[in-house]
Amino acid sequence: MNMNGTRTEKPNSPPDYFCHLHLHTQYSLLDSTCKINEVMKTAEKLGQDYVAMTDSGNLYGVVDFYKRAMKNGIKPIIGCEVYVSSTGIDNGVVGQSDDIRLVLLAENNEGMPIWLD
């Protein structure tokens, strides 16, 4: 913010409030090698206030992600990338080209228990 209360942004850089909402960590098996501690170090170095985690089809890293974010003064956004199959799972075939990937983000603590059922 400048003295007038308006945002000042550097050319070719994300605004101060920018946050990637689709990030896979090492808990997205065979999909990412990003380690949570390195993600937090980089986010802190870049001055990011928020970091999202949306691992593929699981929430294995949520506790580690949450604790490390809070330790570094970063607000965690917890999510998950899920898969919606157009043919169902009864035929035993997954990964069809017409399947849909859907990123779910928890707005607050009320949304999390629904995912865990």
The H-and-E topology, N to C, reads as HEHEEH
List low-pLDDT spans: none
Strand order of the largest sheet: 1-2-3
The largest sheet, given as strand count, sense and whether it forms a barrel, is: 3 strands, mixed
CATH topology of the domain at 36-116: TIM Barrel
Percentage of residues in strands:
15-25%
Radius of gyration: 17 Å
Count of beta strands: 3
User: What is the overall silhouette?
Assistant: elongated
| CATH homologous superfamily (4th level) name of the domain at 36-116 | Metal-dependent hydrolases
CATH architecture of the domain at 36-116: Alpha-Beta Barrel
Q: Which structural class matches the secondary elements?
A: alpha+beta
Mean pLDDT: 81
Instruction: Count up the helices.
Output: 3
The CATH class of the domain at 36-116, by name, is Alpha Beta
- End-to-end Cα distance: 43 Å
Report on the structure:
This protein is α+β, with helices and mostly antiparallel strands and 117 residues long. It has a domain at 36-116: TIM Barrel (Alpha-Beta Barrel), CATH 3.20.20. The protein has helices at 36-46, 62-71, 112-116; strands at 50-56, 75-84, 100-105. A three-stranded mixed beta sheet has the order 1-2-3. The longest helix has 11 residues, at 36-46. The model has no long low-confidence stretch (mean pLDDT 81).
SSE blueprint:
Blueprint (H helix, E strand, L loop, with lengths): L35 H11 L3 E7 L5 H10 L3 E10 L15 E6 L6 H5 L1
Parallel strand pairs: 1-2
Antiparallel strand pairs: 2-3
